[in-house]
Records
---
Amino acid sequence: MSREGARLWDKGGHLDPTVERFTVGEDRRHDRKLLKADAIASLAHADMLGAIGILATGELAALRDALQEALAEIDAGRFRIGDDEEDGHSALERFLTRRVGDAGKKIHTGRSRNDQVIAALRLYTREWLLDFRAAVADLASALLDFAGAHARTPMAGRTHMQPAMPSTVGLWAAAFAEALIDDADLIACAYRRNDRNPLGAAAGYGAPLPVDRAMVAAALGFAGVQNNVLYVNTSRGALEAQVVEAAGRVCGTLARLAQDLLLFTLPEIGYFRLPEELTTGSSIMPQKRNPDLLELVRAKAAFVDGQAAIIRSITHHLPSGYHRDLQQTKGPFLTALEEAAGSVMVMRLAVPRLAVDAGRLRDGCTPELMATDRAYELVAQGMPFRDAYRQVGAELREAGRGGRLHGQAALAAALAKDYPGAPGNLALDGARRELRELRDAVESDRSAVTGALVRLAGPAAARLTDTGPAASGPGVPDGR
Ligand code: ARG
């Protein structure tokens, strides 16, 4: 079934079509997302081959033109990975060979598909991580704004879900903002590890050619070269797991936020309400306005964690070197990224649109919330804490829950306290400063990366994770 030379490793032998289908699996579909990154990495590789004398000036110019043509085809959604091509790398090499003949056949000098796929994945992942870190910062910022707007809105603090102490909507919302700022650290760590040039590792043992790895690193805007060529290969999968784990931490934070909102938007509680446009209906019960979006944020956190577990399970027991098993991590990886980004995006929509019912929140601040504050009044009068604790306990038993503790004045006094850690002091400025630093870091990373890629490949190289038109939409040929 394969035309002569369609498979890169074709040497004239026969491959059973069932084995071919099985080994290719879903790779062509996943590779469509990586094509653009692959073409850009190939430009840097070609420049380097020119610099070390493998490509003559004319050959390099021809290859560059052909690669630019490939980029345009990819952006237009027209680049095809044929049924007889194993993957995107094969399709790209064949495209180049058809366009420029022998120069095309030289592009694979000094590399292997193993470092080629890692390079494409890293470029794709780098942009995704920048976008994700920025989106997480936006969401954290929306939560801080929400916290600031409701810094004085009373809300029952709970432990074991039972009423515990007086608190505010601001404290609740800012807790999630600070969690996301911490989670963003994990994204930054994954970014640093990802931001190294793998090319030159070839199949894991280098190329028998003095390739200039630093030149390629600079051209692609990587912070440096990943030194050990065998480690380049063994870090495939490990790095993906780390990225998905970081995304999974963010999704975990969002799942807890979603879970709280599922409770607090219950009609019986009614602290918050989702606007109609963010809810979905039931096919049978006309009255329903369901918070499906929150439920799916909760589910997708588990899904993303699950993809990290799949990637770890596939890779943890592999011997050193490349193994085809690694191909099987591509799907879980790319799917996890898509789902994690989706969760951040919908929560970013939901948070600023949450309606707050201050009356219901105040009603939820039942008198027993004041028990600890009452005990500390006695402490302030000199009573040892344990005695005060027992006395308030006894008062509560006598008078029924909350008897002597009632009064909005007591609640207001409790919420007005403003020493560090008190309800009246959320210290949002500290979180805002951290967010500014986070945003600055993302923007400086982004401008370094974009600057390099645009210098290398032109303005179209500024974005490489946006999927072309052929990747979606009904009835569009999918290039398979
Ligand atoms: N599609 C393959 C992957 O994702 C590309 C590398 C193939 N390398 C090989 N030695 N068969 O792993």
---
Amino acid sequence: MPARLAAPEPTWAVDIDVVVLGSGAAGLSAALAARPVRDVLLVTKDTLDAGSTNWAQGGLAAVLDPGDSLESHVHDTLAAGADLCDESAVRTLVAEAPTAIRYLSRLGAAFDESSHDHLALTREGGHSHRRIVHAGGDQSGAEVQRTLDESVRLAGVRVVERAFALDLLIGRLADGRRAVAGVRVALLDETGAVESVGDVTARAVVIATGGFGQVFASTSNPPAVTGDGVAIALRAGVAVTDIEFIQFHPTVLWTGPDATGQQALISEAVRGEGAVLVDASGARVMAGVHPQEDLAPRDVVAAAISARMAQAQGGVDDHVYLDARSIGAEFEKRFPSITASCAAEGIDPTTDLIPVAPAAHYVCGGVKADLDGATDLVGLYVVGEAACTGVHGANRLASNSLTESVVAGTRVGRALSWSLPLKVEAVDDERPAALLSADLRAELRSTMSKYVGVLRSADGLSTAADRLARLEEKTDSAVEPSRRSFEATNMLTLARAVVAAASARTESRGCHRRADAPESLDTWRRHLYVVDSDATVVESP
Ligand code: SIN
């Protein structure tokens, strides 16, 4: 794989204390918390609100009800994570979650209330209590994004939109250790063509670029979510872990067999309010599958739906249905975005069944980091979906991700306001550079959905590896640099990493399910690490 993204030579330079890559809840929280003390530049390849945060429906998990307990939230998170969570990271997240909600409220986030001064709380899969805070019914992420966008601008964070982070600039500390010197950035025009390239030197680089659902043909993620920061880390030789655990959301709106790209999410909160899954013959999908039935953890529900689709009950093999009719007239008020998505397809959830299918939704793994964002590379910090802090294990508990983004983003920003790593000079980067043509994205994405989806097997993964290797042979230094070709190259790097880790993990655990190894094995209660852009998998980083 290319060791660098091919791009024109840099023609400008900027020096700053902290550069944050990405503008979802994690990046904005980090920038905001560092800003009172540091000069902060926030770089985003699109507009501020183009990432996943803006689309999040369910909300933010936090213990706010006196009948709930931190211990219960910890228990549910660990249970969903299928023995791969880092318990101390989970405990920190859960303990700090209520403060994160109060912080957002103070910044102006208008969360839904059940009565004056009491936040409305809903339930989602895997939670034993109602503890999901939401806004605008099902527009929770949009409210968090709006709040943080405004706060970041008011705080004087410098924001540059349509700027694509290409690769880290690396130098050496006096003791010889590698350290981050900054990041090379391409400024884009409205079509995604490169206008110029420059170097942003900084004492700290914070990657907060989110996940990479767009690596799959069908996803709940918006088009910008191509995992650029995780690919940057791999090219810099920073370990990525738990990357085989791609969470498939059980229910996106099914609009036809050929639908690709971003699909409308049908929030788990719909099941939290009483909806149930049925197949085309009318039989309940989740009855008898798990004690929590339709509110079982997400991996269990997605796998049960896939198994039911494979049985083709009622002659339907590519979707099942959500029966939300019991919610009645309240549905539109509680779920305005979902009502609009359904209406666009001629579906009235108060009278019709909603056709649904699983789609790629969230990357549980990512760049190995702690809850303060620190990684194994001096000067590099990673937060949000791009990071693997051990909070999610093999399967993220619903609505823990926005909470984690705000908690960890704020922690990294605060840590950087207290102290910055030493400044290092970048050394010339002679690594070979190339790109994958954007025309090959569709082939990559269909390969991933076909062979690396909810249910995997050694044969399918091996076919995927061969197809991705053929795409790799087509990477070339002559491909025109552009946002689309940068993204395509990053997507290929990540697809290869997922396939390598999924092939190595010969068991089923959390959201990594293998038809040829259906059991979870005690010997596999451990993490795998991908340590470079050639998808080398190792047992310890
Ligand atoms: C949902 O609303 O179902 C998604 C929430 C999440 O992914 O945490």
